[in-house]
Design a protein that fits this description.
82 residues, mainly beta, two-stranded antiparallel ribbon, 4 strands, extended, Aldolase_TIM, NADP, GMP reductase, GMP_reductase
Length: 82
Amino acid sequence: MPRIENDIKLDFKDVLLRPKRSTLKSRSEVDLMRSFTFRNSKGSYRGIPIIAANMDTVGTFEMAVALSQNKPCNAIWKVSEW
């Protein structure tokens, strides 16, 4: 049976991101690294929570190697040759 959700949904046009004052002197001082502990496995991840797109031109092993130098994730394209 389908579930009907009645709570409010927001889209990008519904939300305004406002700049905020910061104590940082430069954008190079920003730290994007985050730590996550997974609820069910208790495994942990420390890195930048950005995942490259799972497309044939982006989700490649070469892109995974390039991204691994900066700690984001890469979703390998599902028909890649392992």
